[in-house]
């Protein structure tokens, strides 16, 4: 019996779930690629196509959020 076959499950998703593959730089419905290589799920192909842009915008928002530089807000205050 091939025990390794037990661990080689294909990623499964629902129709209508869209992902952005970080390795192939492509949108996929499914998913097709492993979770470590994708962002999502998104509710539409368009939303998945803009995954990297959305991530950049959120990073800027978080970097400029005063709570990230306020130790008391993070719970780091002595």
Describe the structure.
With 78 residues, this protein is α+β, with helices and mostly antiparallel strands. The chain has a domain at 13-65. 28% of the residues lie in helices and 17% in strands. The protein has three helices and three strands. Strands 2-1-3 form a three-stranded antiparallel β-sheet. The longest helix has 13 residues, at 51-63. The radius of gyration is 18 Å and the shape is elongated. The model has no long low-confidence stretch (mean pLDDT 82). This is SPOR domain-containing protein.
Please summarize what this structure is:
This protein has 78 residues and is α+β, with helices and mostly antiparallel strands. It is 28% helix and 17% strand.
**Amount of beta strand:** 15-25%
**Roughly what is the average pLDDT, rounded to an integer?**
82
- Proportion of helical residues: 25-40%
Number of helices: 3
Number of strands: 3
Q: Summarize the helix and strand pattern as letters.
A: EEEHHH
């Amino acid at each position: 019996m091939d025990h390794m076959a037990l661990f080689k499950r294909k990623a499964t998703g629902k129709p209508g779930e869209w992902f952005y593959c970080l390795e192939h730089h492509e949108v996929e419905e499914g998913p097709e690629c492993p979770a470590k290589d994708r962002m999502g799920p998104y509710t539409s192909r368009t939303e998945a196509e803009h995954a990297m842009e959305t991530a950049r915008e959120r990073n800027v928002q978080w970097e400029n959020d005063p709570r990230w530089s306020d130790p008391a807000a993070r719970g780091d205050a002595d």
